[in-house]
Amino acid sequence: LLYGFDSSLTHFGYAVARLYGDTGVQWLACGVIVTKPSADARTKTDDARARVEGIARELRALVERHGRPSVIAVEALALPLGKTSLVTVSALGRCRGLVDALAVEHGLTAHEYQPQALKALVAGARDAEKSAVERKLACTYPGLEQLLQQVKPANREHAADAAAAIHAVVTTQSPEKTP
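^ that's the sequence the OP posted. Answer follows.
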């Protein structure tokens, strides 16, 4: 099974797919783990910890639902332009660390792809709009299009980024084929 992620504290995108034959991809899941500020948190650090713990539980449930990953791919972090607080950088790092921890737990190394490289690979241009990436993925994988349509429009780009990471593995690597 191939797992793809777009790690973030507020909108953590995921996709799960199975390979068949030489190039066939069956999409099993695609979505976004959305976290909200914790009402119980006294500080931003407490809030981030609570959210990260929630994402960790959701990732564990995802693996329980779909099975053990054979490949994990992730879009590299892109820090927001301008002034980024240390709390934000720390929270993003912790979320990305969840992907690495999941990979280590299953004896894998996460394949990391830069956002511009994913855009170029999927849509043909490093500066492609998120909507162009989503449209190209939907055209390439009709089964994925159905799953993306189930995600709220405001969250779709995160699910599409996770699917793009899987697309990168399928088109540039030789992942272990699963029946």
